[in-house]
Predict the 3D structure of the following.
Amino acid sequence: MIDTQTKEYLHVHPMVHQDKLVLHTAFTVKGTYRVWVQFLLKELLLTTDFVLHVTELSAGHHH
Amino acid sequence: MIDVLLNFEPPFIKVQETVRLLLTPINQEVSNVTLALEEMHTKDVHLIVVSDNLSFFAHEHPQKAGKDYAVDFSFPFGGKFFLYCDVKPLNGSPVVIRRTVDVASDIQEAQRYHQDVLNATVDNVAVQLDVQDLNAIQVTIK
């Protein structure tokens, strides 16, 4: 994940919780983020990209 | 203080021409000594390359080449690019060092990201992000 303004980079690896992939993030800055998700499927590396607006910050739990 | 020195061969980067990126991890407190790294996720170095407008993304794994780590790369268009070098010094904590590269060419227009994009499809695989809890984003791959 990269903040479109500051270009700060967050590297997150998914954890498996009850058969779901979960990204534990710790946003400290509101803003618009570009998100890329890469995964291996049948030995093929696939990349998908997203846009995420973070408008609120919560205390949340950190890993 | 950990740093990653960045050099190119050839020294001038041109659009869509292969350039060898040379990365040298160092400890600034110990000059002229290449920093020993340990693997993270099976690689010594993860190099993320993005364009200034974040429309372009690449994830490379430079290979050890002498005292450097090297990877051949071709920048797809001109303008500013950000390189994130994700490394873990031996017995140390992971660090991300950011470098900026200017590729001579026409300047790319700024990209606007007005709305969330939480669904994507690649090779008939659909990926969805559930962002109801920003501290625990759920990823669904179908």
Chain A has one domain: 2-54. The first strand of chain A starts at residue 2 and ends at 3. The radius of gyration of chain A is 13 Å.
